[in-house]
Amino acid sequence: SDKNEADGNRFYCGKDVLPTTGTPFTKYCSNTGAWNPDHIDESLLRFVEFSYVFSKEYLIVADLQGVKANGKYYLTDPAILCTDSRRFGCTNLCALGITRHLASVQDKLKMFKTKE
Length: 116
Fold this sequence. Notes:
The protein is α+β, with helices and mostly antiparallel strands. Helix content is 29%, strand content 16%. The longest helix is centred in the last third of the chain and has 16 residues, at 94-109.
C-alpha cells in the first residue's frame, strides 16, 4: 500500500538464482503441448503426467522451462492448466488444454516404451 511504501516497507517476490553450470536456459514445452524436440526427456514427461494423475485429473503442469545442471532440472515459471477456468490466470487453457497437453505427453512417452 502507499502507507507501507511511505514508511519504507517494501516487499518483493524473488526466486533463487538458477545454476549457471549445465545447459543454457531452455523452454522444454509450451502450455499448448508443443515440446522442444531437442530437449525431450522422459523425466519431464513423467513429471507432467504425474501432476495430472496426482491431482485426480484436476490440473496439469505445463510450460516447462529452466536449466539442467548436475543431472537435475531446475524449472521456473510454469503454467498450470486446470479444469476450473477461474484459477491460474490467462495461461490456463482449461479442460481442452489439459486434454491436448496430456495427449502430447502420452505420444512423446511412446518413444521411451522400448526401454521398459
